[in-house]
Amino acid sequence: MNAYENTDMKASALQCQKILSNAGFISGHSTARDDVLMTSQAHPQRLPWRIVHSEASLGWGGQEHRILAELDGFHRRGHDVWLVAPEQSGVFRRASQAGISVKAQRFDQRLLLPLHVVRMASWLRRQCIQIVNTHSSRDGWMLTMASRIARVPLVIRSRHFDVPIPNKSLSRLVYKEWTHHVITTSERITEKLLETFEMSPDEVTTMPTGVDLDRFRPEGPCAELPLPTLPAGTPLVGMVSVIRYAKGMQILAEAARLLRGEGRLVHCVIAGDGPSRSYLEVVIAELGVKDLFSFLGHREDVPEIMRSLDLVAIPSFHEAVPQSGLQALATGVPVVASDVGGIPDIIKHGITGRLVPPKDAAALACAIRETLDQREQTQAMTAAGLDLIRRDHNLEKMLDRLEVIYRQHLG
Predict the structure, then answer these.
(1) Whole-angstrom Cα distance, residue 364 to residue 352?
(2) Tens of pLDDT along 252-291?
(3) Which string of DSSP letters, residue by residue, matches 174-243?
């Protein structure tokens, strides 16, 4: 649970709410939507747009990939973009390397939140920022309140994960009252927000991450993987992901053990790193399948790795629309995944891949076996998945849809 969505956050949030009220930004029935009219003269609408994204996380996963894709995409389209994030975070480093303007900001100093809010508001005003898009809880609180003070014309809250929202009455402020629009990555997340905060459908847009089809395509080189000597024809089952408990890699380990018990040998390739790697290595050793796993660590050659695999597994416990699923479909790799969160938005059982109940190693092993054995059906699903990505989930289409939202609010 994030501190800024915990009840412990209430005191700091109420203090900032008092600042906003004293400054005249919260009174009567005024909401974020009223600010658009009040700010049209202070921030003349013009191209290029001046856009800020914020992220409090230090990690580097699907959410951070999405943020960088939006920043880089609008930067390429001629707009002025900034990232506000901790200096030691993965997305800060990569954005800076990509030539994106960055502003270092700490989000772990809860007692100093009111001071940070006022300073951030001053910076937003000096930069004449027109669009602020927040992506996590801690940066969401700080940047949303700062945007209210600075009268930023368009404040967006992006929600990437299908997890419970604690303290709904307080969270309502950053999802509805102080925000102009919410973007989610799956229909399931959208439905829960509409119900939780009694929002109207025009306040929320479902927009899965787009895939760069120039990079992720079936044709192209494969990666050279540092694998042990394997029997000829051993299928490679891969996961390209941050190593976290909720990604379900321990379930894949149990499935690999079950398959070996049936006389079916597979080798599991984990591309990524993360806080649960030590735990996963212990589980693999205890299950006696250490020889069935190879850890590649963090890799940037994801398209080449995808093309080297026979199957991608996504046994997550909760998930939005996973980047690895989109990327696997785009490169023509079969997918077996948990039936949770936004995964069914892209992995449609029996059509674009196979779904299994979460935390069910036997079902996962069965789906892996069917994927490898039923080649004709698997090829048909893979082709349908590729069509789906090309039609509905390419990167440029995602950027076009974002532009539509921006124009609807900014004119």
Answers:
(1) 16
(2) 999 999 999 999 999 999 999 999 999 999 999 999 999 9
(3) IIIIT-SEEEESSHHHHHHHHHHTT--GGGEEE-PPPB-TTTS-SSSPPP--------TTPPEEEEES--
Cα separation of 403 and 74, whole Å? 9
Q: Where are the beta strands (DSSP E) in 261-386?
A: 267-271, 293-297, 311-314, 335-338, 354-356
Better pLDDT: 184 or 35: 184
Three-state DSSP class for residue 160: coil
pTM given for the model: 0.82
The answer to whether 56 touches 138, Cβ cutoff 8 Å, is: yes
List b or e across 314-348, with b for residues whose CB sees 16 or more CB atoms inside 10 angstroms.
bbbebbbbbbbbbbbbbbbbbbbbbebbbbbbbbb
By CB atoms closer than 10 A (0-12, 13-18, 19+), residue 92 is buried
CB 330 within 8 A of CB 216: yes
Strand (E) or helix (H) holding 80: strand 80-85
Residue 6 predicted with pLDDT over 90: no
